[in-house]
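Ticket #4471: complex job returned nothing on first submit. Input attached below:
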Amino acid sequence: GIQVEQSPPDLILQEGANSTLRCNFSDSVNNLQWFHQNPWGQLINLFYIPSGTKQNGRLSATTVATERYSLLYISSSQTTDSGVYFCAAFGDYKLSFGAGTTVTVRA
Amino acid sequence: DGGITQSPKYLFRKEGQNVTLSCEQNLNHDAMYWYRQDPGQGLRLIYYSQIVNDFQKGDIAEGYSVSREKKESFPLTVTSAQKNPTAFYLCASSHGTGSYEQYFGPGTRLTVT
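Support reply: We reran it on our side without changes. The output follows.
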């Protein structure tokens, strides 16, 4: 199956700071999704982004499929952005998840 | 409101007992999935189903069983053969099993002692 690596594993931010999370994947993919897992465990869909760039409020994502990576940008971070961010790549019949980036935003 | 529901939220069982986790969706999705998440890790696929009365094993199917008798329901049974059943279980659905966007339920935390 596809290997998905996320970096950094942990990120501590001061409120208002910007950050970039990275997701590398080992093979061609048909789909890439970014999720935010809240403290109760719910996975919230952030982006469905097989290629290109999308923006949603303070969050944006870019996937460069030919170079096998995707980036998630968080701008003007808020304490509510804390949690674990997962990327997942679809290939070989299934969605493969990375280990996640744990983001902590301090007030 | 359309969505995916899972019940119960928390489940406690004694070792050696089978337990069934519920997953229901009203999104009219054809495909449904079960994932397992262990602390500090990503999700791993247990089983998936493309249509009613059909399902396929994922990466870690041993010790689990599923059924898909209705489009909106995909229950997961954790059997006594599962060696380490304590985990967080998440159900998902999508329009199809290709590269469609998957949506997740709120999860069930299972603790087996």
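Chain A has a mean pLDDT of 95. Closing as resolved unless it happens again.
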